[in-house]
Amino acid sequence: MIDDDGYRPNVGIVICNRQGQVLWARRYGQHSWQFPQGGINPGESPEQAMYRELFEEVGLSRKDVKILASTRNWLRYKLPKRLVRWGHKTCLYWTKTALVPFAVNK
């Protein structure tokens, strides 16, 4: 789902623990690092997308995390050309970012 300006809705997630450490993960098969993130599917809220991406990318469920904060407004950014995977297309995103603490439930 891309808007009229060419931006794709996306969520980004910063996961932290009680010690203040954050998860900064290396992308599989690449030499780049990022926070968990992903697109928002049609009919999905940013929060629903965040929980789905958390599970898909790091195996965490809703019960494993708590939302501490999120961006008030959408953030727009354009991927650098060296990170564009879809040939010659420019990738632009609208992003909502959430900060969630992670605690292992035992």
UniProtKB/TrEMBL annotation:
Q: Which cofactor does it need?
A: Mg(2+)
Q: Give GO BP annotations, semicolon-separated.
A: mRNA catabolic process
Which keywords annotate this record? Hydrolase
Q: Which domain of life is it from?
A: Bacteria
Q: Give the residues annotated as coiled coil.
A: none
EC number(s) stated in the UniProt entry for this protein: 3.6.1.-
Task: Cite the Nudix hydrolase domain residue spans from the record.
Answer: 6-106
**EC top class, in one word?**
hydrolase
Q: Which PROSITE patterns match?
A: NUDIX, NUDIX_BOX
Q: Which GO terms describe its cellular component?
A: cytoplasm
Q: Does the keyword Hydrolase apply?
A: yes
List, alphabetically, the InterPro entries matched: Nudix_hydrolase, NUDIX_hydrolase-like_dom_sf, NUDIX_hydrolase_CS, NUDIX_hydrolase_dom
The answer on whether this UniProt entry bears the keyword Hydrolase reads yes
Recorded GO molecular functions are: mRNA 5'-diphosphatase activity
Family annotation (Pfam families): NUDIX
Tell me which PANTHER family the record gives.
M7GPPPN-MRNA HYDROLASE
Q: Which family does it belong to?
A: Belongs to the Nudix hydrolase family.
Query: What protein name applies here?
Result: Dinucleoside polyphosphate hydrolase
